[in-house]
């Protein structure tokens, strides 16, 4: 321990709005300093000199204004008593209680720190025997958790120690639940990723244009392994066979007529088509996308005329239909002059 020097207490802030509390804090620190350094065992002269050396210049100036009875200025306890009366006399009990009642639990503050702060504030409020009861009230009103506040209000014969225990238990349970939830989410994410890598196909319904537009789309395959320019396997060992060749249908360069988009657009489409595309995906070895495309407005449909009561009615053949559908104009056309009655 040779060479070790205990730091002196912080000076007393005489301009502190709560001078009474500031003095109480300084007095406690100075008492500990005296005990740790052995100064308490010295004479009054050394103790007074030490006090005035660490208390700060503002407090020394205040000391110089004190009026002592003859001989008391050399007695340590009398000097301490003068400072006590000077600082404590400026305490405003109403203000102290106001500060106590305004104290709420701060963000991130645990219950132990909150209660410690309340007890420190209560010391200067002169609550007497009601101190613990009023601290309990402030704990219930000041905690930030609304559900926990309701639980405390429902508890019968609630004491300060019991309330602190309930709040500690709730805080520990909340922390454990957060930890468990976090681990569960990580396990679920890992399991989902492993399932995608298992080789089983995953199906996704999408709706996208059947014929992509743009010059860059011609260089990409609509199906995995099929060239959109020549219709053969892709990728090629060398240049695409259609490179520099002219289409026999649209007369444009760099593609064959069998994969010509202009020709495919001009061909009739079925009422509903289902296209299956196999796509590359780093999370799955086999993944397919199915799309359902409605027929185009220019598609050719099979039409026939049906004789109904001597009137030819045009109709569209749909082998997949389960009911026959007609507009309300057709029966009026067939039964002109004969009013329709409910059946």
UniProtKB/TrEMBL annotation:
InterPro entries xrefs: Aspartic_peptidase_AS (IPR001969), Peptidase_aspartic_dom_sf (IPR021109)
PANTHER family attached to this UniProt entry: ANK_REP_REGION DOMAIN-CONTAINING PROTEIN-RELATED, RETROTRANSPOSON GAG DOMAIN-CONTAINING PROTEIN
Single biological process term from Gene Ontology: proteolysis
Source taxon at top rank: Eukaryota
Matching PROSITE patterns: ASP_PROTEASE
UniProt-annotated stretches for the region Disordered: 183-223
Phylogenetic placement of the source organism: Eukaryota, Metazoa, Echinodermata, Eleutherozoa, Echinozoa
GO molecular function, one term: aspartic-type endopeptidase activity
SUPFAM superfamilies: Acid proteases (SSF50630)
Comp. bias intervals (Basic residues): 190-211
Name by which UniProt lists this protein: Uncharacterized protein
């Amino acid at each position: 321990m040779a060479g070790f020097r205990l730091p002196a207490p912080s000076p007393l802030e005489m301009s502190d709005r709560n001078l009474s509390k500031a003095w109480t804090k300084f007095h406690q620190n100075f008492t500990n300093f005296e005990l740790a350094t052995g100064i308490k065992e010295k004479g009054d002269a050394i103790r007074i000199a030490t006090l005035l050396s660490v208390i700060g210049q503002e407090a020394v100036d205040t000391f110089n204004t004190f009026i002592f009875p003859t001989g008391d200025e050399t007695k340590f306890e009398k000097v301490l008593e003068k400072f006590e009366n000077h600082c404590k006399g400026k305490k405003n009990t109403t203000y102290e209680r106001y500060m106590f009642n305004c104290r709420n639990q701060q963000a991130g503050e645990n219950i132990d720190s909150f209660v410690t702060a309340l007890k420190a504030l209560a010391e200067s409020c002169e609550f007497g025997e009601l101190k613990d009861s009023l601290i309990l009230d402030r704990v219930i009103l000041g905690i930030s958790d609304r559900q926990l506040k309701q639980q405390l209000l429902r508890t019968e014969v609630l004491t300060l120690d019991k309330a602190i225990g309930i709040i500690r238990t709730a805080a520990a349970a909340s922390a454990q639940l957060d930890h468990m939830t976090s681990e569960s989410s990580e396990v679920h994410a890992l399991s989902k990723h492993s399932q995608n890598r298992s080789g089983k196909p995953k199906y996704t319904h999408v709706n996208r244009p059947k014929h992509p537009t743009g010059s860059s789309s011609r260089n990409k395959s609509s199906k995995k392994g099929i060239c959109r320019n020549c219709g053969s396997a892709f990728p090629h060992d060398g240049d695409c066979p259609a490179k520099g060749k002219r289409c026999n249908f649209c007369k444009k360069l760099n593609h064959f007529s069998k994969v010509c988009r202009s020709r495919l657009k001009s061909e009739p489409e079925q009422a509903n088509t289902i296209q299956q595309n196999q796509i590359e995906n780093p999370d799955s070895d086999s993944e397919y996308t199915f799309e359902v495309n409605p027929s185009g407005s220019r598609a050719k449909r099979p039409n026939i005329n049906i004789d109904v009561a001597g009137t030819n009615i045009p109709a569209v053949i749909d082998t997949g239909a389960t009911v026959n559908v007609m507009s309300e104009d057709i029966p009026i056309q067939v039964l002109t002059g004969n009013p329709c009655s409910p059946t």
